[in-house]
Structures are given as structure tokens and as C-alpha cells.
Amino acid sequence: MNQTIDTLLNHRSIRQFKNTKLTDEQLDYIIRSAQQASTSSYMMAYTIIGITDAEKKAALAEVSGQPYVKDNGHLLVFCADLHRQTHSATSEDYNQMVDNLENSEHFLVSAIDAALAAQNAAIAAESMGLGICYLGSLRNHLERVDELLALPTHVIPLFGMAIGEPAHQPERKPRLPKSAIYFENEYQPHDDAIQTFDDQIAEYYQSRSSNNRSDTWTDQMHRRFKKTMRMDVTDLVQKKGFNKR
Ligand SMILES: Cc1cc2nc3c(=O)[nH]c(=O)nc-3n(C[C@H](O)[C@H](O)[C@H](O)COP(=O)(O)O)c2cc1C
Q: What's the rounded mean pLDDT across residues 32-47?
């Protein structure tokens, strides 16, 4: 179709990287692409922290429990950030702003802004032949990550992104059929589409070249949602002044 669509359709997460650091030029394109993402009401309500300190990187890898957090070409942490909105605010200004700073609306706004910037970064990296892996695993111990990055009030870490030269080429992971996620005009029943996908994904899990197993998407989702996880996230989010009202 065109190169952009090819890049998008070729995505797969990369979890083994060559020992090659990103060049300054590559990083510059990645960050500038992230910055050019659409942003709600021009808020630019996110911060990206690149981890160059080996000890911090090791500490983040420990939080995540995943080796590719340490072994990659570069590690970025994407944060929701409403701190800049309070720049130069007097205490009177702040008191008038605090309802908005602390409400669910602006928690969502900042998380969405960060995610859009991150996905632009991912596409930029992939368009240059690099691989990426998002890292929600940094939320295994959000408070520790918050401390390591010295984040002020109204800034919280959301997820990381490992970037680098791919050292493996995993198969592309199938997605739900379009009929399960795209509807016209209103929400539609799509149980059949999920069933078809479960059959397809069972085959994928059985035949893929690594980590093959007997599983379906539905079973995977039920298992995941039955096991409570990261229940401490709410505390940190609210402690940092997000999603309180
Ligand atoms: C916000 C977010 C967080 C993620 N966190 C992790 C993670 O901590 N570790 C990991 O190995 N993959 C992580 N992933 C990657 C997903 O597992 C992956 O995108 C999904 O299984 C689909 O596979 P694919 O990207 O290879 O197509 C994350 C993806 C997203 C969008």
C-alpha cells in the first residue's frame, strides 16, 4: 500500500536487542515524532524520560522483572504530566485549578496524550528498522519508579519502551478480526467473531516457533482478569494528585 502502512502492519514486539546504542540522530527523530502527535487542547500533558544511567536502568529492570528493560538500545519512560500546567501559578491560581488537575478527565487526558506520543515514537523507531517493546511491567512497583525518576506532583510514570536493533524476528501476533472491533453506528454483538479468533489463536499458539502452548484468547483474558494485579496503582496515582475527584 505505502511504506507507513507497511510499517504499521509489520509491527511485532521485540524482546531481544543487539548491544547497539541508538544514535543521537535516531533518538532525536523518535522524540520529535513523539512530540508531533496530536495533543488534547495543546496541553502536551506528558514527559518522556530517557534512561542513560546504568544503575537506574538496572533498578527499573528489577522492578519489571524483564531483561530487555536493561539490554536494549535505549529505554524511555512515558509519564502523564500535568505539572507544567501549574508553571508560574500563584497559590490562588493553583486553588482555582486544582479541581481540574485532580479530576478523572485530566487523568485521562494526560494518559491519552502520553500514549499517543509513545505510539508515534514506536512508529518512528520501527520506520528506521528498530524494534520496540512497551513495558507496563514498570507498574509492578510504581512508587519505586516514581522515586527513581524524581517525579514531582502531578507527574506519574505510565509505561516504558525498550528500543533497539532487533536480535530476533518473532512472528506477527494475530489480532481480533475487524468485525470484532469495528462496528457501524452502534455496538454490535460479536461472539462469533471472538470464537473464530479463539480457533485461530489456538492454532497460532500451538504452531509458533517459541513459547508454544495450548491456549485461546478468551481463556487468557479470563485468567488475567481473575487474578487481581497492581492494586497499589490507585494509591500512587491519587497520592500524586491524579484521578481524585
Ligand atoms: C501499554 C503496554 C504495555 C505493555 N507491557 C509489556 C510488558 O511489560 N512486557 C512485555 O513483554 N510486553 C508488553 N507489552 C507488549 C504486548 O504484550 C504486545 O504488544 C501484545 O502482546 C501484542 O503483541 P505484538 O506487539 O508483538 O503484536 C505492552 C504493550 C502495551 C501497549
A: 98
